[in-house]
Amino acid sequence: MTIISFPSSPTTGQRYTAANGVTYIWDNEKWQSEASTFGTGMNYILPPATNSRLGGVQIGANINVDINGVISVSSQIQADWNETNATNADFIKNKPTIVNPIQSDWNQTNNGSLDYIKNKPSVPQLPANSTGYLYNNGSGTLNWVAGISLSTLKSVVSASTSFTDFQSRISAL
Q1: What global pTM score does this model have?
Q2: What is the DSSP annotation of 34-52?
């Protein structure tokens, strides 16, 4: 690898030919390559070196430059989900908070509880061991009508000519 040692106090328009055969021109801000072994019209811009940057490479953050100008990069650091010290290189910023899943509870009555189910439909309880049927009176509410056998219900349904007729026949029972 060729080390380029640019003049320390260049003047505008000054040319410098590096050991690699590339000629650079100082434009009072940065060195730009002339047409050279890199081909005509290609410019390679190198900002001036400072205490914290060398040719546009920031020193630190796992990038090192030794006394001979050789740039090296430290080995990669594996991110650690459990790292809590924000100054460590393996710390993960902006991690999402993972919450434990909550099982909803149909019987929960405390609406402040996390397992409470909002807007549950009301489900009527059917009487046990009783003859009857569920009946919608048109309001959207199901009612249990007791004391009617299945055969009586079938005959009312068969005889009804409309829903209104069915309602009046059931009400008459």
Answers
A1: 0.23
A2: PSBTTBTT---EEPPP-SS
